[in-house]
Amino acid sequence: QYPELGITTANELILPVDRPVAVSLQSVDVIHSFWVPQLTGKVDNVPGHTNHLWFTANEARPEPYLGQCAEFCGLSHANMRFRVFVKTTGDFDTWSKAELADRKAPTSDLAKAGEQQFLTSGCIACHTVKGNPVAVGKIGPNLTHFGSRTTLASGTLDSNTENIKKWLHNPPGIKPGSLMPNLNLSQGAIDKLTAYLQELK
Hints:
Number of helices: 5
CATH class of the largest domain: Mainly Beta
Strand order of the largest sheet: 1-7-6-3-4
CATH architecture of the largest domain: Sandwich
CATH topology of the largest domain: Immunoglobulin-like
Helix content: 10-25%
Radius of gyration: 17 Å
Strand content: 15-25%
Shape: globular
Number of domains: 2
CATH superfamily of the largest domain: Cupredoxins -  blue copper proteins
């Protein structure tokens, strides 16, 4: 979350180059640890307590800096990954304006069917899609701009058609301990949802 900008995203942290950033770290379950070795040292995320971290990224580049939970925390500790993208000031401003926008309405027939599938398959109980008045769930990641992200499942998988379908087929099979259950979706439902999610940019 970017409280001052009103932005909520997932899996990826986007930062402006040469600008000090303050990160507030929390946990809702066990102790985790925020660590991006090329940018800053690790700081723990502790339940019931907020820790703070300040650092400045000095090089904008297209490749991400890789982050990882550095505190053994459970079944999918090794799968708790994230990416940090450092952008020029202009590119960061462009990104932040895009993130503030509501989701774009689906255009393809398959994606339109996917939006209806999304609304009727239980997805809205956990996920928000900004601009859709009934998709306001807070348990899972905000999906408003899912299609613009490079990873899914806490950085476990690259975001592409094949991996999105694998994830929707059986989330706990990809990431043991995942809070997202296996919804036993049909292949047709998975195809529709995948098309819809990829158009959320």
